[in-house]
Task: structure prediction
Amino acid sequence: MMELRHSSLYNLSRAEFTVICKEARSFVSGSWKSKWLKYMGISSLFGMALCFTGGFGFLLFVNKDLPSIDSLQVYEPKELSVVLSDNEEVIGEFFDEKRIVTKEIPDVIKKAFIAAEDTKFYSHQGLDFLGIIRAAWVNFRSGSRRQGASTITQQVARAFLLSPEKTITRKIKEAILAWQIEQSLNKEQILHLYLNHIYLGHGAYGVTAAADVYFGKKLHEVTLAEAAILGGLPQAPSRYSPSKNPDRVKRRQLYVLRRMKEAGFISEEEHEAAANQEVLIEARRDLNKTLAPYFVEYVRQYVMGKYGSRMVLQDGLKIYTTLDVDMQRYGQNAIRKGLSELEKRQGYRGPLKKLKNDEIDKYFEGRKFEEQDDERVVANQELEVAVEEAKGRGEIKMKPAPALEVGDFIEGVVIKANDEAQEALVEYEPSYFARIDFEDMKWAHARQKIDDEDDQVVAAVRKVSDVVSVGDVVVMSVKALSATASEIGGAPMIEASLEQDTEVEGALLAVDPRNGYIRSMVGGYDFGRSQFNRAIQAKRQPGSSFKPVIYAAALDLGFTPASILQDSPIVFENDVDQDKWRPNNYDQKFVGDTTLRSSLLTSRNITTIKLLNEVGLDQAIQYARRLGIESELNRNFTLGLGSSVVTLNEIVRPYIVFATGGYLKKQIFIKKIVDRNGETLEENVIEDFDNALLSTVDRSISDLKQDISSVIFTEQPKDAAEDSATFLKETARDTNQRKLEKHTSALKPGQVLSSEASFLMTNLLKENILYGSGRRARELNRPASGKTGTTDENRDAWFVGFTPQLVAGVWVGYDDLRKLGRFETGSRAAVPIWLDFMAASSAPYPKEDFSVPDNIEFARIDPQTGKLATAKTKGAVFEAFVKGTAPTELSQGKKQDADFYGKDF
Result:
């Protein structure tokens, strides 16, 4: 066969052979192409199947770990808790994330964010495929990631359900979740989640918090121009921070406005008006440290202790308090002013520091606020409006920085000390200046030596350069928000007074006696310097401000304002170590017989000690507990002079009792607390009586462990001595105990002191303001009562005073127990603070006098003898008595040895 084949081919003509070869070549070529196509087809199908299988498997793998979107159905994010004043003004915030969830979001806000972030939001199903392709092309051309394509729905999936990692797996999960979210929630629900949750810089989460942080506005108050600024923040909150980059923010704002116009959200007229509108950015302060820092911290400690940090920082509590914002401001200003004036009386310590010329710029740089850039995607520069286009449009600028009010204290650097113009110029922020007139620095004489008992001649300040020089870092208080100076043209200028960094401390606490509401709490000069709350935490000797406790006990046990006390020397001797104590009066004098009223009016120490002995230590301590004093009390006769340490909060309580006719009102600082669902967690109902405090009165006398028999009185010369046997009348003390128990049973529900004794104390303390150590408070020009207190060597100065509507206590002193300075008594250091506060705080109230109980009567007496006055009695006065206790014997008159009404204690 092979031979035949060869033979046949051999016999073919050349033409036939050529035809056969062509046909064979064509056949072979067609066969291989067919096979190749078949092979490629099979391979493609196999590859597609493999890809499909792999992709399906990958999707199954991804879907296996995909979080559920069910949590989005019930949106309960971390939400800040707010502290509200009595009139529901926000005075504090507690949070992990500053987020305020808002149900009603204005359309202008929605449109701004949609225009900037996702113009096809209402038409896509979670993914914008054209946007993805466009972003991929832009990024490919630029060689870097210049543009993102995440929809708002994808951003919701990422923010709520995924980690921020940048991987293909996360992007696929994000896409799947976005599709699922679109199937589960409607567009408004998705937008609600997005706008309440998104981070917008400076600690603000959600549009409501951002409106407050950047503009100091409620969300519904935001304008179109401001909404466009907020809408431009999500891509890079730090890069587009309004307070850091106003020029860049302006270009971004114009971009958002243009996108809103192109989307048909706004008209051309609206676009132009918003583009040309000037926008002021709020210079924000830490709210917790601005209005009522000590009070807010007091609230924080309470709620954190009771409800825990998670609930307080994340669950959006509303804490309604009793604080009066106006009174709080009056209190803070009064404390600052009073302490500053005390420091000025003692002289100038000099500047905080001295800077060389090359150090001044560094000083300001060190005070600038800095914020770390985040790692969000920065928008494509092509999307930002050109710099030239932004020129001539409405500016975005900070409000005059820092945001100041008259009375604020600030520091700055002296840049000019002009003796000729009698002024100093101070730069307190870059390109912001203050002018200090010479009259407002004349006080700055050399500091006096507190321990020097001799009068000192202090050189007078004659010119500006005697006080300050260029480079001095000084403290100032704002006098006026605008001023002109000889050295500065049109730069921002304020008028200021020279101050100094105050080292002395003070505290103020004000309570409405009618309901127990704490209206003002100032725990120190500067919360930023020290968070220690001296109104609540500091325990100091109250001095004579404690004496009313002893006098109230005496009046309740039968003494009258006309009772005669003997002001004469006494000596106490301890039978253990033979140590002797010779108490003395502040003026180092003794006046002999004096009435109880005069004894309290002139704050006599000796008569107070003798009155304490008549009352009995045990009974006096019981009365102190009854009147609200909880601290441990010295169980000896120094108790009557205020030797036991107490808080300002405690020493205010007895005066509340006097003001209310004998009722100890529970001090309330929180009215109620409501959770995010509107459920009331606690509510403090106004009570007439603090049962917890009164329960301390019921302790057995045996619990008073001090053995007062260890204290005896040493014999003195007959013209001044007291019979020790008479002094230690245990029988009389037993009688007083029975009286106390009898009076307790006769009290009305809620009373801790009889209304008669309360009125008599109020009446006695009113005279202290009219004629005694508190007479500086007469300028209040309304009925008021009060008592000063000064401890040894003027280390503490006190004043507690009250009207029918308000009780306020003031303490002044150094934390380290230094002396305040010569003549810095309660009258000089504390009363002016109280007066400044009460004058402003009492203005809305009518001028009411204290009510007189029915069981009170008045009799005309001789103040020298305490007996009934006759027609010949000189200086007779009407005195108040409980019915049946007025004297019946006529006065024969007596020469008074000393004029003690004018002494300042």
Summary: DSSP finds 26 helices and 27 strands in the chain. The first strand starts at residue 81 and ends at 84.
